[in-house]
Amino acid sequence: MRYVLFAFSIAAFPQVQFQESPGRISVTIDGKPFTDFYIGADAPKPYLHPLRTAGGKQITRGFPMELMNGDAKDHPHHRGLWITHGLVNQVDFWANEKNQKGAGTAGRGDVITRKVVSVKGGKKSGTISANFEWHDAKGVNLLNESRVMTFYSHPTDRVIDFDITLTAAEKAVFGDTKEGMFAIRLRTELQEKAPGNGKMTTSDGKQGEKAVWGKRAPWVDYVGTLDGAAIGVAILDHPANPRHPTYWHSRAYGLFAANPFGVHDFENDKTKDGSMTLEKGQQFRFRYRVVIHPGDAAQGQIASQFAKFSKVK
Fold first, then answer.
1. Which pTM value belongs to this model?
2. Residue 103 pLDDT > 90, yes or no?
């Protein structure tokens, strides 16, 4: 009887758990640390760091939050996993570290945490719901962001769903630039460029930066080897997202980003304009799924994951 009761208690125990502390929410899945969600005033934007596999291996770069062996110290605005864009009303929310001027003519902006709406763990999944404001250099709010992140329990994978709604606090023009939008910076060992051993693969099987950067695809998987084992991370673009299938701002040095706005950059055609405008009160809704998995895209069943994700309303 004792054994039965103990087994039941383990089965009933939440497998996705959260721990809140000042400026941070820690995420534990199946009893193992997965990531931390940084939302404090000292961060220029909310971000997840680090991301880990189900086995505990870190897949994201440590810099600038911490130093890992082999870390490149370029692009200090590449923090774990983040969501921003390089031109909103000419304000740069992408290269927006406090010591950066920003590429836009209106300077750099900050994404401010307004409210953590709810933090709820669960047996199979758990969610963080939070609201943010995108402030320009003068502190004027341009966008209200509502974000829900759902973390799933799984024996071999780590899966996160993102549901992001951006509402214009005033007229907001998302400018045409490659610098955006839903992004991950991978650790050195996983990047394509030496000394990394990674490789990007699109949903139609094309491989390498030249076949991925600036191209459109419903999903891309970035796979490399850590400690002798193949590990992949995929980003899936929901079919209902604006300008699906998205363009990819993904680089051999480990930047891995989906960006629907950078048309003239990606197509190398200055006559095209990929900007999109929200009038005051209008919204964009973006949904993405991130899958961290063992093996390549076939072993990770990314095509099947996308088919399932596509049906999410």
1. 0.95
2. no
CA–CA–CA angle 39, 42, 44 (5° rounding): 75
Q: Which CATH number fits domain 2-310: 2.70.98, 1.10.3470, 3.30.420, 3.10.20?
A: 2.70.98
Residue 132 and residue 115 in contact, taking contact as beta carbons nearer than 8 Å? no
* β strands within 141-212, DSSP E: 141-152, 158-168, 172-174, 180-185, 199-202
Confidence class for position 101, pLDDT limits 50, 70, 90: confident
Collapsing DSSP to helix, strand or coil, 85 comes out as: strand
pLDDT one-digit tens code per residue, 219-243: 999 999 999 999 999 999 999 999 9
Torsional sign, CA 298, 214, 112, 108: positive
Closest CA to 256 of 301, 294, 298, 288: 288
